[in-house]
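Why do we care about 3D structure at all? Because function follows from shape, and shape follows, mostly, from sequence. That is the central idea of this module. The next example makes it concrete: a single protein chain, its amino acid sequence, and then its structure expressed as tokens.
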Amino acid sequence: MQADQFGWFKSSYSAQNGECVEARRRTEGGLHVRDSKRTEATAIAFEAAPWAAFAQALKADAFDVR
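And the structure:
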């Protein structure tokens, strides 16, 4: 993952069609998350613990998205 000049990064698994999310570490911990197609829109702030729990659930395939 390569961060841009403002610290925003996206997964290296992201497609080149621009339909992905970008994240940036917060100085106080946690992440900001935004839509890569609407970078001017407000980002969502996540505290570190809830984001870690969400990421762990994704890795465990805990969400039924079918």
